[in-house]
Amino acid sequence: NRVRAxxxxxxxxxxxxxxxxxRLVESQRRYEQAAELSTGPADQARNLRAAAGAxxxxxxxxxxxxxxxxxxxxxxxxxxxxxxxLDLAWMALTIARSPGTMAEPHSQEEAAAxxxxxxxxSAGSPAAEATMSVAAAYLAYRELTIARVEQVAAMAGDxxxxxxQDAALDL
Length: 171
Description:
Structural class: mainly alpha
Distance between the termini: 46 Å
Order of helices and strands: HHHHHHHHH
Strand content: under 5%
Low-confidence stretches: none
Number of strands: 0
């Protein structure tokens, strides 16, 4: 198991270096490889999330959704409701916020269903609640007020969910 852990570590480090050097496709693949080599579900989910991030960075939204779905499944199987909630909320947020990254169309109804799944899965962590609020704001974009945007952005900031706060500030 020590050898497998070392291989996982090296694959993850290589993936990070590839990402920093702008080699996003290869980075995504190496993060996926690291996920497969992971010695536990927490490491596997972390590497799947990193692969999903690399995918979205290269505007491959379908890969992003696929990897977050796998991460959510791994997290749920391991009893990590907060992690699964974040994955589901980010799937909903990506569909609502970044439809242009999708090679296949995904509907707002699908995003709403993913958000419903996130709400049902949630254990109440502040970061998950904030991310779900940002996703909900994107889904209700036409009815948004400046006050609601400020509230959602502040909620994400207070929760330490900087990426969700960034998304909220794009509203």
